[in-house]
Amino acid sequence: MGTVLVIIPTYNEAENIAPIVARVRESVPDAHILVADDNSPDGTGKVADELAVEDDHVKVLHRKGKEGLGAAYLAGFRWGIEHGYGVLVEMDADGSHQPEELPRLLTALKGADLVIGSRWVPGGRIVNWPKSREFISRGGSTYSRLMLDVPIRDMTAGYRAFRKETLEGLGMEAVASQGYCFQIDLAWRAVKAGFHVIEVPVTFIERERGESKMSRDIVTEAAWRVMSWGVGSRVNKLLGRKEP
Q1: Which residues pair with 60 in a beta bridge?
Q2: What tens digit of pLDDT does each residue of 120-134 get?
Q3: What is the H or E stretch that residue 36 is in?
Q4: Which residue, 38, 26, 37, 34, is CA-closest to 5?
Q5: Whose CA is closest to 154, among 180, 133, 132, 129?
Q6: CA atoms of 39 and 215, how far apart (whole Å)
Q7: Tens-of-pLDDT digits for all 244 residues of the chain?
Q8: How deeply is 243 buried, as exposed, middle or buried, from its count of CB atoms within 10 A (0-12, 13-18, 19+)?
Q9: Secondary structure (3-state) at 42
Q10: 214, 131, 90, 141 alpha-carbon torsion, rounded to 10°
Q11: What are the residues whose beta carbons fall under 8 Å from the beta carbon of 25, sequence distance 6 or more?
Q12: What is the tens place of the pLDDT at every residue in 157-166?
């Protein structure tokens, strides 16, 4: 499948970036890591640069400012494809996505185009989440699955492994959504494009250090965009139009 690039977007993750990089390097020694830092005020970019000096498997993409999770991943995808990587992985910096589970995602990718580390399939679970957060995540995935008519159980999951060819076929240049909505957008695009998507159960652990980037605005954006996509898709089908 080619060399693996694990993309880790960061904004104020100075406490977390070194531990998560070390865990990735131990779990998948051949993988490379791209830290995509949005000019973190806490010096995350500097820490990442120091890691890159010590380890040639670690790369750093310095971005001008905080533009959102989706923009950071898209920049990382483009960088990875331009530099010849065959597999591109999404992973959070805070440890909620366990690097020790990455080998299972990569094994599953041998028979798929996109593998999603899922909390809501049998065997998947969450640790240390408040009920309110679980309700938002479960509800968001169910809502998206029904509105967009896709079989994926965890539409908002952010732990994913893509083949390069999958990303090239998703029309990334048209993706403008962020946060939860970004993950929903890519999953829906993959299904519409006919790619084979597999969900692998993972254990999601709430961060121990730093602050979550989740906000009401992110949830609201996702709800409105998904409703718009779902309604538009149904109208296109009724009118016999081809999906954009």
Answers
A1: 35
A2: 999 999 998 888 778
A3: strand 32-37
A4: 34
A5: 180
A6: 20
A7: 899 999 999 999 999 999 999 999 999 999 999 999 999 999 999 999 999 999 999 999 999 988 888 999 999 999 999 999 999 999 999 999 999 999 999 999 999 999 999 999 999 999 988 887 788 888 888 888 888 999 999 999 999 999 999 999 998 888 877 766 889 999 999 999 999 999 999 999 986 655 555 556 666 766 777 777 777 776 766 666 766 5
A8: exposed
A9: coil
A10: -100
A11: 31, 33, 55, 57
A12: 999 999 999 9
Can you give the pTM of this predicted structure? 0.88
Question: 172: exposed, middle or buried (C-beta count within 10 Å: 0-12, 13-18, 19+)?
Answer: middle
With CA atoms as reference, report the closest residue to 35 among 219, 227, 12: 12
Q: Beta partners for 207?
A: none
Q: Which CATH class is domain 4-239?
A: alpha beta
Pairing mode, if any, of strands 32-37 and 58-62?
parallel
With beta carbons less than 8 A apart as the criterion, state whether 179 and 72 touch: no
Q: What is the largest CA-CA distance in the chain?
A: 58
DSSP string, 221-235: HHHHHHHHHHHHHHH
CA–CA dist 2, 85 (Å, integer): 6
